[in-house]
Amino acid sequence: RGNLLDVSDLRVVFYTYRGLIQALNGVELWLNSGEKLGIVGESGCGKSVTSLAMMRLIEQPGEILSGSIRFDGQDLAKLDEDALNKIRGRDMAMIFQEPKSALNPVMKVGFQIAESIWRSDNAKSKRRVYQEVRKMLELVGLDSDRTINLYPHELSGGMAQRIMIAIALSSRPKLLIADEPTSALDVTIQIQILELLQELVKKLQYAAILITHDMGVAAEFCDKITVMYAGNTVEHSETMNIFEKPYHPYTQGLFKAVPDIGRTDELATIPGVVPDLVAPPSGCRFHPRCPHCMEQCQQTFPPLIEIEPGHHVACYLYLKEGDTHAN
Ligand code: SF4
Ligand code: MG
């Protein structure tokens, strides 16, 4: 499906005192080199867990139960820690929601960028790396003279996120994953950071995954969109397609919940709440909230099928005779 990343049947659980949380229930996700994919859904649908699982960063009490994570010719699900460490922060780099907590507090930001450059090529001379650090700082819109020797606590939130982006891009990743990279920032700074990311990803032609609960942001940034609900992929398509013709009742609800610019109506919301994943609904996990729920929906999980070229949906409304296999 995707030539750079192809995640299939990814299942993750967390063992808690309340019971087993079935956080990811067979996620399907793929993308090609150079593509920008948005992962969207309400909070708690498993977007962040998916990105952590892809990098094999799920820690106790969590566990990956099954799934293949094919990335650039290898199945990350089968690699050991040593091999994974060569990929993380290098071929696959990540930007988090809280930039300050992701930075090393006792190291100057210039040095943190230098480390990332060394990770991609440890044969570079100090002088060369120093020049590249300066270039990276300018690339993310910072004055290199003023910022290179700062410590993380001396940065504003927006500056810290620019530094995180510089670190992530310094390793020349094949895939950049950004998990709600702007949600901790003020609105005006959010826009600046998103514009910067968009510009850089385009200029440098990296593949990128943007995790967001904001459909507008996803539409701006992404070529393709994967919609998640309660630990499942429920729809995947090109961005234009999914906005013009959302098929899954959940996706349709998500779009209704996006306010039109200039309209003063109250924000529509999807009735019902995100299910408790300790005791998820049987069959289609969306069925308690779905206006089209049928008997079959309550019994078995609908497979993700391609109903039009490039448009995949997991919903019995579109399942035809003979469509029994996922994809
Ligand atoms: Fe609704 Fe059934 Fe489709 Fe689930 S499978 S979204 S319950 S119609
Ligand atoms: Mg999250």
Please tag this protein with its features.
single chain; 327 residues; alpha/beta; Rossmann fold; 2 domains; 8-stranded mixed beta sheet; 4-stranded antiparallel beta sheet; 11 helices; 31% helix; binds iron/sulfur cluster; binds magnesium ion; membrane; nucleotide-binding
Describe the structure.
With 327 residues, this protein is an alpha/beta fold. 31% of the residues lie in helices and 24% in strands. It has 11 helices and 12 strands. The protein has an 8-stranded mixed beta sheet, with helices on both faces. α4 packs parallel to α7, α5 crosses α7 and α7 (157-170) runs parallel beside α8 (187-204). The longest helix has 18 residues, at 187-204. It binds iron/sulfur cluster and magnesium ion (MG). Iron/sulfur cluster is lined by residues 248-249, 284, 286-287, 290, 292-294, 297, 302, 315-317.
Total beta strand runs: 12
Question: What is the correct CATH architecture of the largest domain?
Answer: 3-Layer(aba) Sandwich
Number of domains: 2
N to C succession of SSEs: EEEHEEHEHHHHHEHEHEEHHEE
Envelope shape:
elongated
Strand order of the largest sheet: 6-7-8-3-9-10-12-11
Strand content: 15-25%
CATH superfamily of the largest domain: P-loop containing nucleotide triphosphate hydrolases
Oligomer: single chain
Task: Outline the low-pLDDT stretches.
Answer: 261-267
Average per-residue pLDDT, rounded, comes to 90
Fill in the CATH topology of the largest domain.
Rossmann fold
Query: Count the helices. How many?
Result: 11
Q: How does the major sheet shape up?
A: 8 strands, mixed
The end-to-end span amounts to 9 Å
Bound molecules: iron/sulfur cluster, magnesium ion
Class by helix and strand content?
alpha/beta
